[in-house]
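Record 1 of the preview.
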Amino acid sequence: MSDIMVIGIAGGTGSGKTTLTRKLIESFGADVSIIHHDNYYKAHHNMSFEERARLNYDHPLAFDTEQLIRDLRRLKRGQTIQSPVYDYTIHDRTDKTVTIKPTRVIVVEGILIYESRELCREMDIKIYVDTDADVRILRRIMRDVRDRGRSLESVIDQYLTTVKPMHEQFVEPSKRRADVIIPEGGQNKVALEMVIERVRAHLAQNQ
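->
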């Protein structure tokens, strides 16, 4: 469907992707739907909790990106999809799904969405949220301890052993595929207004 705009929002952990995504929803409401790459982590039901906790969740192979691409294409064809749901507290997919209906603007959000050339080709605008590493780690610590039941030690250990090296190997280089790089994400009011205006123009053009 040519009147559907797909916006990618990528960036490192704690960069402000969620804030930017939320601002778009606040601005356009029911015209926007969101696909979270994190929900497409591969299922590991056959592993113990301890084994799952040791997996590298910041490598491209941790995700079932092919399923996300298939679901995104269905949305672009005007079909409703059932997105998987991932539970961070158990390090696994749940048996639940979330219904996502086709809308005029689809946001694909995640740290590694630009690592896949095939996924990039499905997007009309690719935004990369660029935030200093010290700010990102502090945000991640606060989020994981408060919202995901993690200990401070486990968050720091994971950051140093997988998050930071994977960011440097995969996430940071992928920003070269972005069309727009926004420092500080949703806190950058000038850049945010430019994105909102671009979406507003698209919606007005395809009424």
